[in-house]
Amino acid sequence: MQSAVRQLTANNGQPAIELTFDSASALVYLQGAHVASWKSDGITEMLWLSETANFAPGKSIRGGIPICWPWFGGYWGEEPDRAQHGFARVADFELVDFEATDIFTRARLRMVSDAPYPEWSNRLALEVEIVLSDGLGIELITTNTSDETVEVGAALHTYFQVSDVTRVQIPELMGLSYKDKVRDFDTFVQEGEFSVSEETDRIFLDPPAKVHLIDPQSGQNLKIESLGNTDLVVWNPWAENAKKMPDFDDQGYLNMICIEPANALDNRKVLRPEQRFTLGKTILPV
Ligand code: BG6
Q1: Domains, the chain, ordered by start
Q2: N or C: which end of the chain has fewer CB within 10 A?
Q3: 141 DSSP β-pair partners
Q4: What is the pTM of this model?
Q5: What is the spatial distance between Cα 30 and Cα 33, in angstroms, rounded to a whole number?
Q6: Which of 49, 90, 201, 249 to mutate to test the pocket of ligand 1 (most atoms within 8 A of CB)?
């Protein structure tokens, strides 16, 4: 069994680490602790990455698993001009610890940049643990390092590679309530099978811990098991919005779907001083 963690420079000279376990591999950029590639068999890419993605300091990578933290979506506080999805996705991380064993390969990263906003400075610590085995596991471990309560929102904004987004199914969404970002955040119930045929931006409430992503065309199905989330966000920008984003290649929306365990909107986690909170998920080919 081959199992290792090695440091390397990846796209555009950006520092990264590669985890390998048997024939599986994962590439993680240190900026944003951003998993940009996961090949469960060493050949098939499971994560979608835009052909026009940026690989540069201060720019989030369009694809893979960006981390939304310490808030999801637009900022809820009073201060203006705070970045959408928080600041962790462009923060610097360092490798603090790793383990390469017969049953998994594991790397733990720690955010080393201070928050770019004064009101968030020295409030929280963030560690990201990535585990590669038959599947891919990722955990965000937040610790309140201040002496006040702090509210934390987060998401594991995972872009999955699919053959044809109009044909994918996520059976467990049927019957769930969701807030629809495309329709003023009004609440609806998912009647019938969920499918994508237009811009889709839904925050599913109280989702089950396990959902499946079924890709009938490739037969490549995944089980996604989440932990610590109150919500599951499902997003596809569709054609017009994809065109508006320079880092989103024009046709890419047909081959991706984001499924994101999250603590979104008002479902922020309130942490007491020293309290820890883990948001995580494991993705397993089935
Ligand atoms: C999703 C949101 O999680 O992320 C969408 O629900 C948003 O509303 C999308 O457009 C992409 O966000 P960003 O900041 O990476 O372009």
Answers
A1: 3-285 (2.70.98.10)
A2: N
A3: 127, 278
A4: 0.97
A5: 5
A6: 201
